[in-house]
């Protein structure tokens, strides 16, 4: 049985396990730097930076969806879905859709005009899933990032 709920402190060790599982799936096994303490600090309390939903199947956390508020100069309030993670064994069983639906309901309850996320161009299963839900995959946009080393170099530190 699938159950979706908001993460609590005790869930964050499992949340981090799933984040690491995603990093392996995305061919970046050494990229995860976030800690359980950071997840707790920024995902709980009155001034949290993100909302994390956990997806349980028969009482075991088998997926997460992590999202946070953004502001668009064109649309105003929006929600960014950072990651939707489902264990390999649970893919295709409805858990991902249940988590996705929860994020969209959360976004609607926040009165946003847009929900956005990034999907890897080689993850055709995810692309198909999102397109089938009515989402538009924007072509011609590049994701830009600057890590700590590049930031320090740019700022001359």
From TrEMBL:
Key words of the record: Acyltransferase, Transferase
A GO term, aspect molecular function: N-acetyltransferase activity
Keyword Transferase attributed: yes
Domain (N-acetyltransferase) ranges: 2-156
Pfam families for the chain: Acetyltransf_1
PROSITE patterns in UniProt: GNAT (PS51186)
Top-level taxon in the UniProt lineage: Bacteria
Protein family (similarity comment): Belongs to the acetyltransferase family.
InterPro entries (UniProt xref): Acyl_CoA_acyltransferase (IPR016181), Diverse_Substrate_AcTransf (IPR051016), GNAT_dom (IPR000182)
Name of the protein in its database record: GNAT family N-acetyltransferase
């Amino acid at each position: 049985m699938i159950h979706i709920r908001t993460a609590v402190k005790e869930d964050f060790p499992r949340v981090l396990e799933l984040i690491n599982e995603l990093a392996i799936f995305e061919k970046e096994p050494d990229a995860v730097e976030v800690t359980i303490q950071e997840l707790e600090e920024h995902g709980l309390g009155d001034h949290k930076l993100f909302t994390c939903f956990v997806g349980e199947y028969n009482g075991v956390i088998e997926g997460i969806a992590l999202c946070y508020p953004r502001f668009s100069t064109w649309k105003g309030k929006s929600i960014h879905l950072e990651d939707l993670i489902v264990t390999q064994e649970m893919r295709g069983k409805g858990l991902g859709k249940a988590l996705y639906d929860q994020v969209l309901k959360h976004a609607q309850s926040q009165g946003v005009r847009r929900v956005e996320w990034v999907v890897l161009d080689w993850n055709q299963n995810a692309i198909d899933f999102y397109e089938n839900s009515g989402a538009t995959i924007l072509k011609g946009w590049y994701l830009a990032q600057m890590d700590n080393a590049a930031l320090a170099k740019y700022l001359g530190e």
